[in-house]
UniProtKB/TrEMBL annotation:
One of its GO terms (molecular function) is metalloendopeptidase activity. Residues 455-704 form the Peptidase M16C associated domain. It holds the Pfam family M16C_assoc. One of its GO terms (biological process) is protein processing. It comes from Atopostipes suicloacalis DSM 15692. Gene3D superfamilies: Metalloenzyme, LuxS/M16 peptidase-like. This is Peptidase M16C associated domain-containing protein. InterPro entries: Metalloenz_LuxS/M16, Pept_M16_N, Peptidase_M16_C, Peptidase_M16C_assoc, PreP_C.
């Protein structure tokens, strides 16, 4: 055997046996996590140290998936998604490593995925074809000699969007300034200012050096055919020999060159920069050799910064250092940093920031940390860690691969962080010995490896930078000869020609795929029984194995609440469990929650049946170990019946944190925000979601922020009134997910807890209406756009198996090619729901009108759709894939209730699968006219760049500044 087993290791925390192997020829290391999990996974990773900010590791990650020797189609990655039952397929660039993970519950499919990925990383076509770097990284784009010269590239535009986030800039500067003599000073994702310096020669040389079996780390996981997996690895490992020198990522630490560092970030031109600066203080605190301290620092993060009542966070908020405080332990690769940051601050407050931080930490060391706080923080981390080990919402094998690499990559044991119970138990024993106080003293107070960062808000900075880039490109073009300009035009047209050209059928045929015969119409049965809770309400039990955890959700019926109240209801859902009550002040409540439960949080659930009837609920969710359920019930009751809304200072802090989180969402998922905003103007249920959690909610929060600067009496009264209306037996339904043996106890405990609620009849159900229909644009400080449209497909485009297969074709053929490959956007969105919601969106998109044109031309694409039976087969399999995703016990319970409330039976889902499998090519083209009719009454919502939005102002009925 060419793989020699080095050691075995029992890993009870993850229900696995670890087997470590070494490939004899190359020294490549393989870790097999053997268990009976059917969701098997393969991950191969490489040490990939950056040497500057040109993004070579990130662009390489994209490019290896653009064709390989055995699979020479332009996009094998996309072809895999089309024709696979994968539960995970992706690639990820970290600060010093790049990984390629896949997962599937189907053994045949798993082997297909593994084979394509191995060929991609070891035999990519970009080595011979520079057009791949041009498309995925950057290129000079000039379609006509008279056009303006611009940069285009998928990663280039992705990183322009990423750099629109001040948090991204802040974290990068912490790494760069804290480790100035290491690879961690570089932006591995790529700085848009440096990406255009990357050459094809550098690209090829880097791959040759680092994508070698000797520099690879492979993790296999689950119930798989291990001998076959080794044979597949051998095919790609053999013949490479062994690298003469190991790639070492460790480095000598030294004092940071600058104790203080100042920079700026962009806000919208014309925006007031007052109190919009960022401050941060960071320390180097650990490396992979310090396992116990690494776990200890995660607990310390929870102690100091876990919530608004945590001692350091509270002290900084009370001192008005910033409107929101964040931070904690951050593994940056080989080094681990600990940082504390202040958002909505002023650079003039850095001295005060230091003073409060040091005084607070010194007080904790001198006076000791509250033992109850330590216990609560340990319990919270332990609960989260152990719950994740039984969850199936994400492929555990991929998560464990990343965890193993966090030590293995640096020469340490790959099992360290997979044996979390050992370290958490040690920390519990050390909790009252002064361990955490000493951690503060050694790692923070007396640590010379420390940096201070200030980011000043600068109105219009991105616009100015973009103008500079355009001027430089204009000047560059003006100095080119006619021949050189013609060469750029030819290169651009050649790239477009490649992008437009269909793959050769023989190349597509080489990509392995499942067949329809490999699929079934089976739909998992998520059992749900209904019984009476109180006279007019229901107790739902979703029977699932939960490893001793009780999951409870209280559903308060909102049928008679006016639409105008949903903004406040959305806000209320975020306040409950974060404010004090009659029995507990807010700090004590947080300690109780962390000590005895897995958390309590609120949300709104808006169901809609097949007739369009809206069923809205205010939901409070909680979870706890079986032995702590009585405490969970007591805390649920206390929060629901006795929350204190007079603490406007605490409400102000929560409001600012929510605004901060929403701004992060604007930087990372505005395509979803734009699509939902458009749909809210069409469908009442989506409008309620918009009011309670979308742009309407964001604007409401900003208004609340101003109101709580005063007495805010009206706000407190409104919130109290809303909660009193909720406290009604005739509103309260319960969902319990857990063991059958627990049902009677859980039900009786909750009935007793809420026996004192009022018993008033509910008002008549409100006939909710959609929002005002208009095209809208929302200006941000970003360089890129998120272009969304929404429409009502109900009674126009039927939700059938064929429409779902068409959706897969639209996503992974039409939109992928036109929005991402040719348009240069990072991603796109297409949704068509059973309720009629129909939306399109783009993500980190350099275009606006051109993207809308792509949407408008969709019917023409569908009408002319001509695909082979093999291609149709792929689309069918790709359509089935999301229907096969494993779920955690909690998610199964929520899905069971959702099926009931949305009036979707198991029979409906089986029928959908049958229709998908029966779809023929002609069924797709027939839908072109239906899509045309849907798009004739769409709504446009764009979030993004001010200059581009203003240039297209005629498209919009209203233009707003988002932030």
């Amino acid at each position: 055997m060419t793989f020699r087993e080095v050691e075995k290791h029992d890993l009870p925390d993850i229900q696995s046996a670890g087997h470590l192997y070494e490939h004899e020829e190359t020294g490549a290391q393989v870790l097999y996590l053997k268990n009976d999990d059917p969701n098997k996974s393969f991950t191969i990773g490489f040490k990939t140290p950056p040497y500057n900010d040109n993004g070579i590791t990130h662009i390489l990650e994209h490019s290896v998936l653009n064709g390989s020797k055995k699979y020479p189609s332009k996009e094998p990655f996309v072809e895999l998604i089309k024709g696979s039952l994968n539960t995970f397929v992706n690639a990820m660039t970290f600060s010093d490593k790049t990984i390629y993970p896949v997962a599937s519950t189907n053994q045949k499919d798993f082997r297909h995925l593994m084979g394509v990925y191995l060929d991609a990383v070891f035999q990519p076509l970009f080595i011979e074809n520079p057009q791949i770097l041009a498309q995925e990284g950057w290129h000079y784009h000039l379609e006509d000699p008279e056009d303006d010269l611009i940069y285009k590239g998928v990663v280039y535009n992705e990183m322009k969007g990423a750099f629109g986030s001040p948090e991204r800039q802040l974290y990068q500067q912490i790494s760069a300034q804290l480790y100035p003599n290491s690879i961690y000073r570089y932006e591995s994702g790529g700085d848009p200012a440096a990406i255009p310096g990357l050459t094809q020669e550098e690209f090829v040389d880097y791959h040759k050096k680092y994508y070698h079996p000797s520099n690879s780390f492979t993790i296999l996981y689950g119930d798989l055919e291990i001998d076959q997996a080794f044979a597949d690895l051998e095919e790609y490992f053999s013949g490479h020999g062994k690298l003469s020198e190991e790639i070492n990522l460790a480095f000598d630490l030294s004092q940071p060159e600058a104790i203080e560092f100042e920079d700026s970030y962009s806000i919208t031109a014309g925006d007031d920069p007052k109190d919009k600066d960022y401050l941060a203080i960071g320390w180097h605190v650990a490396d992979p050799t310090q396992a116990l301290d690494s776990f200890g620092l995660k607990v310390l993060e929870e102690i100091l910064l876990g919530n608004n009542q945590s001692p350091l966070k509270k002290a900084l908020l009370d001192a008005n250092i910033g409107g929101d405080i964040d931070g904690g332990s951050e593994e940056l690769g080989y080094p681990t940093a600990f940082f504390v940051s202040a958002k909505y601050s002023d650079t003039q407050k850095m001295m005060k920031f230091n003073e409060v931080l040091i005084e607070t930490l010194q007080s904790l060391v001198e006076n000791g940390i509250d033992p109850e706080l330590i216990e609560a923080s340990l319990n919270k981390i332990t609960f989260q860690t152990k719950e994740a080990a039984i969850s199936e919402d994400n492929p555990r094998g991929v998560l464990y691969a990343i965890t193993a690499l966090s030590t293995w990559l640096y020469g340490e044991d790959p099992y360290v962080n997979l044996e979390f119970s050992k370290y958490l138990d040690q920390l519990a024993e050390l909790a009252n010995t002064g361990y955490f106080e000493k951690l503060i003293e050694d790692k923070l107070l007396n640590n010379p490896l420390r940096i201070e960062i200030s980011l000043k808000a600068e109105p219009g900075k991105n616009d100015e930078n973009e103008a500079v880039v355009l001027r430089e490109l204009q000047e560059f073009k003006s100095n080119l000869s006619t021949e050189e300009i013609n060469t750029l035009v030819k290169d651009t047209q050649d790239l477009i020609k490649r992008q437009d050209a269909p793959d050769r059928p023989e190349d597509l045929a080489k990509i392995p795929t499942l067949k329809r015969d490999d699929l079934t119409t089976n739909v998992p049965d998520y059992p749900l029984t209904e019984s009476s809770f109180y006279t007019e309400t229901s107790f739902y039990h979703a029977e699932q194995f939960t490893a001793g955890i009780d999951y409870v959700s209280l559903y308060f019926d909102l049928r008679d609440f006016e639409a105008e109240e949903y903004e406040a209801l959305g806000f209320l859902s975020n306040l409950l469990s974060n404010l004090g009550t009659e029995k507990y002040d807010v700090a004590k409540l947080q300690t109780e929650l962390d000590t005895h439960t897995g958390g309590i949080y609120g949300t709104l659930s808006i169901f809609e049946d097949q007739e369009g009837k809206v069923q809205p609920y205010f939901v409070l969710k909680g979870k706890a170990l079986e032995g702590s359920f009585d405490r969970l019930a007591e805390l649920l009751k206390e929060i629901v019946t006795a929350t204190d809304f007079t603490d406007t200072l605490e409400i102000s802090k929560i409001t600012q944190r929510l605004i901060s989180g929403f701004e992060g969402a604007i930087n990372n998922r505005s395509h979803v925000l734009a699509a939902n905003r458009a749909l809210s103007q069409i469908r009442p249920a989506t409008k309620l979601g918009e009011l309670s959690g979308g742009i309407d909610q964001f604007n409401y929060l900003k208004a609340v922020r101003e109101e709580v600067k005063g007495e805010a009496t009206n706000l407190s009264l409104q919130l109290s009134h809303l909660l009193r209306r909720l406290l009604n037996k005739n509103r309260l339904n319960v969902l319990y997910t857990g063991e059958q043996s627990r049902v009677a106890t859980v039900k009786e405990t909750l009935q007793d807890a809420f026996i004192g609620l009022s018993d008033e009849p509910l008002g008549a159900a409100i006939d909710y209406q959609p929002g005002i229909k208009q095209n809208e644009a929302y200006v941000t400080a970003q360089d890129v756009n998120y272009v969304g449209i929404g429409a009502d497909a109900k009674n126009i485009l039927d939700f059938t198996g064929a429409s779902n297969v068409l959706a897969t074709a639209i996503r992974y053929d039409y939109l992928w090619n036109h929005i991402r490959v040719k348009g240069g956007a990072y991603g796109s969105l297409y949704t068509h729901r059973r309720n009629g919601n129909f939306a399109l969106g783009s993500y980190r998109d350099p275009n606006l009108r051109a993207t809308l044109d792509v949407y408008r031309n969709l019917p023409e694409y569908v009408e002319n759709l001509s695909i082979s039976e093999d291609e149709l087969n792929k689309y069918i399999i790709g359509t089935m894939s999301p229907l096969e995703q494993p779920k955690s016990a909690e998610s199964k319970g929520l899905a069971a209730l959702s099926r009931l409330k949305n009036d979707i039976s198991r029979k409906d889902l089986v029928k959908l699968k049958e229709e998908i499998l029966a779809t023929e090519v002609d069924d797709l083209a027939k839908l072109a006219n239906d899509i045309q009719n849907v798009l004739e009454d769409d709504t446009v919502v764009v979030i993004g760049n001010k200059t581009q939005i203003e240039a297209e102002e005629a498209l919009f009925d209203e233009i707003f500044t988002l932030y």
